[in-house]
Description:
Number of helices: 7
Helix content: 25-40%
Strand order of the largest sheet: 4-5-3-6
Distance between the termini: 15 Å
Shape: globular
Order of helices and strands: HEEHHEHHEEHHE
Number of strands: 6
Strand content: 25-35%
Number of domains: 1
Radius of gyration: 16 Å
CATH architecture: 2-Layer Sandwich
Amino acid sequence: MAYCYYGSxxxxxxxxxxxxxxxxxxxxxxxxxxxxxxxAWEAYNKNDTHHRVGEYIKTITKTDRVARVDWTYDGxxxxxxxxxHMAMYRWRDxxxxxxKAAVRKTLKALPAACPTVRxxxxxDDLLWYPPNYDWIVESHFDDPEGLKAFLDxxxxxxxxxxxxxxxxxxxxxLLQHRMLAG
Length: 182
């Protein structure tokens, strides 16, 4: 995975195996890479290194079990040793813009309510390479205990219930891992 970073125009790269904290994650491994803009992403997709790494990844993964969201990240750089929690969702059919806005508002209030959250971002998929998940929540914590405290916090449980009422239960991708970059 790290070779992908060094051999191409990726600005930042992080990856890791699921920690198994809190609600059971349904994905085993996460890969995050940042690009300056869509043009840089397109160049990455044409890069031979990217293709070699991609072919290797296919040999060790279930290619029908891939969850992704292309989004504009505005958070802090990875901090080695911290925990990244990612949750990707697909909206239920018929969920209107007001309900989506209520979910986003509730999520964006979580850092103020939950003291162990170091950063939390919410974003829609950019629709660059569908079929992706519709949106993502990414949050950062100092350690697994901070993540567990967040997952158990009443404000987070309220947000989770609101999310569950608005998203497809069979289209949720969860993963938590230690940041290796930074």
